[in-house]
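Input (structure):
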């Protein structure tokens, strides 16, 4: 039996630092009672996440909070990290701001869905995965 790897909590500052450097992750939201997960790209600016994702705008800006998750794992070493941010999402409706992020955040389109939004994290959780002890 192989030894278990360790998982430790990250501080808020560590979680933000890792999130800032990741660049891509997954947007998680509810649609008609079903959990939906979509690939997304992001940038962290002024404490908020600007996210580009192939999702219907109304699905992520009306009602409850959305969750953004990113992680990096190194299978060979058994190390990595995971960060989850949850909060309300807003449409990036300013045309100049949206044009800027469409140029700088390469993303995916799903049918007519190519959404830019700003998430204001109310909760932030992170874990670091270490090698076996």
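Output (sequence):
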């Amino acid at each position: 039996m192989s030894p278990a790897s360790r998982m430790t909590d990250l501080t808020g500052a560590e979680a933000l630092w890792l999130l800032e450097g990741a660049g891509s992750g997954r947007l998680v939201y509810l649609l008609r009672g079903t959990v939906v997960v979509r690939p997304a790209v992001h940038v962290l600016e002024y404490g908020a996440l600007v996210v580009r994702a192939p999702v219907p705008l109304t699905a992520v800006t009306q009602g409850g909070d959305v969750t953004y998750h990113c992680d990096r794992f190194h299978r060979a070493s058994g190390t990595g990290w995971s960060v989850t941010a949850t909060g309300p999402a807003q449409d990036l409706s300013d045309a100049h701001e949206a044009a800027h992020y469409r140029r700088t955040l390469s993303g995916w389109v799903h049918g007519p869905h190519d959404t830019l939004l700003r998430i204001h994290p109310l909760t932030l959780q992170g874990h670091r995965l270490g090698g076996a002890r």
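Notes: The two ends are 13 Å apart (CA to CA). The chain has one domain: 16-127.
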